[in-house]
Protein: HTH CENPB-type domain-containing protein
Amino acid sequence: MKIREASKKYAVPRSTLQDRLHGRVPEKPRRMGPDTILSTEEEKKLVDWIISMRKCGFSIKKDDLLDTVHAIIKGDGRKNPFKNGRPGNKWYHLFLKRNPLLPHRSREGISRRRTVITKESIEKWFVTLQEYLKQQGIEDILDDPTRILNGDEISFVFYPTTGDVIASQGYKNVNEAQTGKEKEAITILLFFSANGEMLPPSVVFPYVWPKKDVLSMPKDWFLGKSDSGRMESDLFYDYIVKGLDNWLLQQKTKKPVVIFVDGRRSHLTMKVSQYCSDNQIILYALPPNSAYIMQPVDVGVFKPLKSEWTNMLRKWRAHSKTVNSALIKSSFCALLNKVLNNKKLDESIKNGFQECGLYPFCSDNNVDYTKCDQDTLDNLLDETQNVFVPKICPEEFQLSDFDSATKVITNIRQNLENSGVDVSVVLGEIEKQRLMLNESLHTVDEFPISIKLENDDNNDIDNLVIPDSDENKLWNSDCF
Structure:
């Protein structure tokens, strides 16, 4: 076909075809529109980061991605059309369009009961973790307690509750005056290894950044500052780089190592993920809503630490030199150091990893599945569906059955309430059914039922009729 003929047929300018034929225009894909704010390589790194985080159990949300892009733009001060340097919905949807490997999923509002951890979800998490480590060829990590770590934040209050007070009869006012801010607390980031060792902690002070010598802080501890007084992404990154990784090098710990953490946003930044990837540190997310079952620090460490801290504060305030004094920031680290140096702490750490099934690595024998509120609730609902029927049959149920159900639910009341169950309604329904059964039993004794057969000759049980009286309305044919 001649150039002129092709130009007319396909509505392509003749000069464009001539440029192509004579090599004046390079043969490469052309993209319409302006250049993207991030380069193709930068967007590829974002995609790889999101996919790798997903494999380690972290879910990157829209805000996490936009915050990461904002940090990249802010880091080198590049020009951008975004308000305050943070991309919006348009950039987000175009980014997903350019990267079809990242399908968009809308979040669905689900009830709290559906988010509660179950035995099946925990077992699936153990299998997924093993498969991930096996694919990386590093499954031997699970056999070495020095390479398995866990950590989280914990707050130590300056004024814990004083406990019960014994007073003489007639004295109602036994209050104790608090000196200072009642709800003041300091956040500590603590990490532990499965062999019972504690890493140097990071202490986060709000608003101000005092000197370490003023705080009487041990030399190997880390000092952080945030406006909120809580652990933020930049502080977490600094601790990973200067604290945790340096400690691993000093201990000559074999790498790679795996660190189990929750899905907190400070753990999700691309900056943290990139450093961990470059230095053979695997951040792996624990199952959602599973801290009281699967996080060693919550299961075996933090509770005794807080109890010991409360006892330490009471002793400090009862001392002759500091009686009824207010604890100040310069005295905080010295007291906390005494608590963390408790000789029994290493046993609590080991027990925490063991009870979570992380070391020794075993989900069958060590994990306490009785803490799974979803399973407990489902069992109770199954039982109540069988017990709480509108028709009571004395041959099937006894009053002691309802008393036992009340006792069980009362013992696990806190777990059920944490799962969003209105325990008072359940207990009220049990009591209602118990009273119905009790009333029906008394009715049997006091009002014998007279039975009349319509056909005495055939004596057919199908023709049995119960007289329609008030005392007999509690009964039904299913009881016979």
Notes: The radius of gyration is 33 Å. Confidence is low (pLDDT under 50) at residues 108-114, 387-395, 444-480. Strands lie at 148-157, 185-193, 202-206, 222-226, 257-261, 281-285, 452-453, 464-465.
